[in-house]
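Hi! If you just cloned this repository, the fastest way to understand the data is to look at a raw example. We've pasted two of them here, unedited. The first protein comes first, obviously.
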Amino acid sequence: MIRRDADERSVRTLHRTVGRLEGELVGRPTGKDLDRLRDGQGAQARRVDAHDRAIRELTEQVGELATALREVRSRARADAGAATARITELTGTVTGQARRIERLHRELHRVEDALRAAAGVPLADLAPTGDDDDLAAAVRRGRRCARDRLDDVQRAGHEDAVAAPQRWERAHGEIVRAVVAASRAVAEAPPGRADAGAVARFREARDRLVVTRGQQGAVRSAAEASRAVLDADAERELLDAPVVAAGRRARDELTRTWRARLDTAVGAGHRLPPWFVAVLGSGPPPDAGPWYDAATALLVHRTVFGIGDPVAALGDGPGDGSDEEYAAEHAALARRLEPFGLP
């Protein structure tokens, strides 16, 4: 009996061993499997090699393109430099030619004027008379009075400051009402159960009230100062209004006088002064209206500002001590004369 049990155990052990070996044999690759695996690895290696070759070729192509790009950029910079140098050269040539043409035009006008003078053609008298000087003085007085007045921006600023106390009163009333409403909400809450939001609103309104009341003195002082400035400006307006109006009338009279004298001189074929010819030519173009307007403005400008330069139509121009109005008028007139001057 004992021996039979031992034999059975041996048989069961043998079965387990056989089962384990069968399992191992089933899971192991066969020779064909190994051959297929080796073939697959070889194909994969060949693909990797092909990719490597493609990458090397692309890298070489990128390097060639980069070299070509550097060459193109270098040539472009060289071409741009040469073009800039050529443009500079041509600009200098054109400028030089323009100066020579201008000198030739001036010389031509000088020769033409000499020939007309030799033929007995009189020189137009474009010098201011005593009456013109009186009108110019009236224009300058009117300009000074007008310049001392507040301009629109300054007046608006002072008027805003004068109205500030009223705005302060309205803002103060609104804040006081907000403080009262917030304090009532806090007071009506049960003891110890006041809403945190109501307390915060009360504190905010109270702080705004403190700040607003602190601004009252500065607001009122600024308003009083601006009111004094506006009153003084209104008084100047009453006193200076006749002077400003007389200055405007004097300028209008100068404009009419110079336009009539210019019409007479051009109509009579008189020679025009060199300073006039330099900026307006020797006579009006076919479209004469703008030319006459610009010429008349120039004559009025020279008279009002006492310009007697025999060469420069506009004189030396604004200096460091010149007022802004004169500088602006000078610049505007210079632009206005540009279309008519010598090239």
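Ok, and the second one:
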Amino acid sequence: MGGGYQGPTAGNQIVYNGPVGGSPATGWQVTADGTTPVTAYVVCAP
């Protein structure tokens, strides 16, 4: 699993960008401390 995010950098500090849900991971999370939305992208493969 791999992922990342896209969003404006002005007004946002990315706090976490990584897999969640145990091992193996079941999702991807991006957490920001600002109010500007960010979009998370993830690719899953068996």
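That's it. A detail worth noticing about the second one: Residues 1 and 45 are 6 Å apart (CA to CA).
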